[in-house]
Amino acid sequence: MELKERLRLAIVLLVVILVGGTIGYMTIEGWPLLDSAYMTVITLASVGFMEVHELSSGGRIFTIFLILIGLGTLLYVISTVTAFVVEGELRDVLRRRRMERKIKALRNHYVICGFSRMGSQIAQELEKSGRRFVVIEKDAERVEMPDHDDEILTVIGDATLEQVLLDAGLENASGLVTVLAQDQDNLFVVLTARRLNPKLRIVSQVVEENSEAKLRSVGADAVVSSHKIGGMRMASELIRPAVVSFLDVMLRRSDAVYRVEEATVGTHCGWIGHTLGDAAVPEHADVVVVGLKQDGLIVFNPKPDVKIHENDTIIMIGAMEEVEKIRKLAHSAG
Question: Which of 82, 166, 295, 300 makes a 20 to 30 Å CA pair with 42?
Fold first, then answer.
């Protein structure tokens, strides 16, 4: 029997003994409800108080059986409650240690600071696109994500504190996103994270528009205003509904995860020095190349004669498994 069921059974047995003892004294001795209940409690507790009233022979025999049954029930209740508390604490300690080991082993993962509605959406997108991530949140009960089979790697604490960021493996992370409710908290996170990992890509939410410049000045690579994004979405729904429908279908397909993704050309990639036509990216995987980022500039719908250089970023649309094929080729010597 599981521990929770045992605890439930123990409570039911205790209530049954208390009610049964009270009814027994009322029936055998003819005592009032309060006296009968009091006698039952002091008998089960074995406190050694005097009987409420003089007991008859039948009452004494009933008391003997009540003591034997009641003490056994109390011992069962006490042992079950103790096991429930100890096992729960032990399970939590073991779970926390297991999670800490997993976080320490992570490399090139992402850190999400804050698990509000936006933080939850970010986590779901990272999960769908196959990225590993760690959540930092003060409130452990908030860290829940639907349709997530595995345990979410979580650090419970204040994301503005340096040690909490280190506990999330920030030094080995590829990126961090902070979506805390206050701009000043996001500012502290960005400032601390940039100092701990200068190569980290940092994206921050901004509430007040006048905070954007401050966040960028302390190290944020990108600053996103939920108000602006929401406004753009509503305007797009108004004037280009077909485009919005296309993107929604792409993002919400259940048979496969389709995204606008990117692949950076590595040092040993065989495509370096060749044209985009020679690379024939669509022939290697079922993707559509929609852009190419070179020297900080993005070329939309690049022509086949565009040459590929090291650190160029290929922007494409396709299923995640197809995108991964291109990523591997972009880092291979073949």
Answer: 82
Rounded mean pLDDT, 245-251: 84
Alpha helices in the chain, H assignment, sequence order: 3-28, 33-45, 57-105, 117-128, 162-167, 183-196, 212-217, 226-239, 241-252, 276-279, 281-284, 320-330
Tokens representing 321?
């498994």
What domains can you pick out in the chain, each with its CATH number?
Answer: 3-102 (1.10.287.70), 106-230 (3.40.50.720), 256-330 (3.30.70.1450)
pLDDT in tens, 49-79: 778 888 888 888 998 888 888 888 888 888 8
219: alpha, beta or left, given left = phi > 0 and alpha = psi -120 to 50? left
3 state DSSP class of 137: strand
Within 10 angstroms of residue 119's Cβ, the number of other Cβ atoms is 23
177-216 pLDDT tens trace: 999 999 999 999 999 999 999 999 999 999 898 999 999 9
First-last CA distance in the chain = 58
